[in-house]
């Protein structure tokens, strides 16, 4: 099968996304690689999204629309995975864009017959939209010439976890056979950390992971689907579920570096959740906030240091020295409320 015939599935979950959805889907349909199926899963929208999708599906046979009651982004992505037929799978949020029309072509070509995952570059710079120009074929060949394989041993995966570079699914293409072989799906019922769990399941089984230096994705900060920047009462519960799974997985590998990286990221999550208790939209009384800080701190007693870089060792050591009251006061200085 030639590269132009390789089917690519792009999965877009959406709930009330009328503001940006048309531009998002247009950016996919504008790809030079024509062998694609655009699977849009409407997760219970109550705005004009269903009508927009009906019009688009009628106009372009590559668009497939699925509708379900509101169950969250993970359930919507899983529904898309169940329906996908492509050799390659990409995930795109309903307010983001594919900004290089050669992206899918580059990914299929770079993936060849052997890669399980192909990574590419993402940006949150609005100036990147519409900035791609020049000789497309020459640009494509240059990117393919610089594609490199990444060796993902335990030490490298630990670095990715600690650096939070494995947290996104929208800057990678996944071979569907890799996903199917592991029965990999997104953990439903949580809003934080599900992408990391999905990635680690795939990465830990991948034989060949390749990156191609093409800036193909625009991430819209503060978009409609964003769960960051505000107080979320269930955030700590979600992150505890994820953290427990990470810790169990790290322990199963027997890797001290992975165990330390998971400790570090869980401690960062504790810091983040305690800091959120100081957000203006958190209306929890002070004594209850202090009690929650205590509960959060108990969940992650300490950070192991194996394989952590100097900066992270400093942060880990500081965490190990701080009690919950000190942590609460310190995050109050950052969070803006005492």
UniProtKB/TrEMBL annotation:
* Any Pfam family the entry gives: Glycos_transf_2
Q: Which GO terms describe its molecular function?
A: hexosyltransferase activity
Entry keywords, A to Z = Transferase
Q: Which residues form the Glycosyltransferase 2-like domain?
A: 9-120
Q: Which CDD domains match?
A: Glyco_tranf_GTA_type
Q: Which SUPFAM superfamilies match?
A: Nucleotide-diphospho-sugar transferases
- Protein name as catalogued: Glycosyltransferase family 2 protein
Upper classification of the source organism reads: Bacteria, Bacillati, Actinomycetota, Actinomycetes, Micrococcales
